Automatic annotation (TrEMBL):
Residues 15-196 form the Ketoreductase domain. InterPro entries: KR_dom, NAD(P)-bd_dom_sf, Sc_DH/Rdtase_CS, SDR_fam. NCBIfam families: PRK07067.1 (NF005472), PRK07231.1 (NF005559). It comes from the Bacteria. PROSITE patterns: ADH_SHORT (PS00061). SMART domains: PKS_KR (SM00822). GO terms for molecular function: oxidoreductase activity, acting on the CH-OH group of donors, NAD or NADP as acceptor. This is Short-chain dehydrogenase/reductase SDR. It comes from Verminephrobacter eiseniae (strain EF01-2). Coiled coil: none annotated.
């Protein structure tokens, strides 16, 4: 349990949060934090059946948590997700827009297929989840609506081996700003979080790819990036929860169009 969830409970009482990419890692950690803060949660991911950690959470919160298999690249499935969420828990007031994938290759070896796959999930999918959820909020006249898009420190800069992923996360930062301006007259806030290096299951894939392209032994890149963080370590999924709860809560009622770095000091802005 994250320390912040024990000191000031129920900061999200009465809110209904929809979370994508919530089968594990940061999405699952934030779902736990939202539940502990009093929210009802609809969580979505690609798997037909939830993995054991999420299944256990569903068992602990049968009246406040539901799972819906969703491929966010399919807009009809996104609409079905929002409809299923509203049927169970009423209008959605909070979006944690987290689903994303990673891949990398040298710039001159990067393929059209890699580009299409990354942008289909990280940009197109994320945008239309946000767009359809914002339309839902307006339709239901949701008060205090909040969207939290998941960007990345990779969206703040280019990297020679990670061009498409960096560009996809830069797009999230830009879409966050545009959506925030569009929704400001309606009282709906749109912000983003830019995590640094977070020790999620995805990092096993990231480490393996760096090992391949930088001729490193397995695990070396993960150790290197952790040691390079000013705070001296990789982040844990729980390290995202404080920012995610704050941005979803009424405490952030005057915060919009911002991308909050949660990265141990890697990026200074």
């Amino acid at each position: 349990m994250s320390p912040m969830t024990t000191t000031n409970p129920q900061r999200l009482q009465g809110k209904h949060a929809l979370l994508t990419g919530a089968a594990g890692g940061m999405g699952l950690a934030v779902a736990q934090a939202y539940l502990q803060q009093g929210a009802r949660c609809t969580v979505a991911d690609l798997a037909e059946h939830p993995a054991p950690p999420l299944q256990a959470l569903l068992g602990q919160h049968p009246d406040a948590l539901q799972y819906q298999r969703t491929d966010i690249t399919q807009t009809d499935q996104v609409q079905a997700l929002i409809s299923a969420a509203a049927r169970r828990f009423g209008p959605v007031s909070t979006l944690f827009n987290n689903a994303a994938i990673f891949d990398m290759a040298p710039l001159l070896e990067s393929t059209e297929a890699m580009y299409d796959k990354l942008f289909a999930v990280n940009v197109k999918g994320a945008f239309f989840v946000m767009q359809k959820l914002l339309a839902h909020m307006l339709e239901h006249r949701v008060q205090g609506g909040a969207v939290i898009n998941m960007a990345s420190q990779a969206g703040r800069r280019g990297e020679a081996l990670v061009a498409h992923y960096c560009a996809s996360k830069a797009a999230i930062i830009s879409y966050t700003q545009s959506a925030a301006l569009a929704m400001a007259p309606h009282g709906i806030r749109v912000n983003a979080i830019a995590p640094g290096v977070i020790a999620t299951p995805m990092w096993e894939q990231v480490d393996a790819l760096f090992a391949k392209y930088e001729n490193l032994p397995p695990g070396a890149k993960k150790r290197q990036v952790g040691a390079a963080v000013p705070l001296g370590r990789m982040g844990a999924p729980d390290d995202i929860c404080g920012a995610a709860v704050f941005l979803a809560s009424d405490e952030a009622r005057y915060v919009t169009a911002q991308t909050l770095n949660v990265d141990g000091g890697n990026v200074m802005s």
